[in-house]
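Lecture 7 notes: from sequence to structure.

We start with a single chain of 97 residues. Read the sequence below before looking at the structure.
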Amino acid sequence: MKTSTGDDPAADPDAAQVGVLVRTPGVNGAKGTWAFTGVGTVAQDWTRPILMIDATNRALYFFVTSDEAGSGGDILYRRASSRQTRPRASPWGRCRR
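Now the structure, written as tokens:
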């Protein structure tokens, strides 16, 4: 998911601009919740996010393009294990080309 955070010229460069919505199911009849997990920042200026689920290897891949000088840039990705049972600050690995 891409936010409009980067549309504001005064936006914090470390603010999340692209990320994933994570659903936590409710328990004992309680409603579940949605939370946004940032994967890329305003400074990185990533665009066109795509999430791929690799069920065989229990992994998530987050693909983006870097919008370098409007040329379309490179295709980048980050990987996270779907086996993670407890939330942590950033389950996503380093960015790869």
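DSSP finds no helices and five strands in the chain. Keep this in mind for problem set 3.
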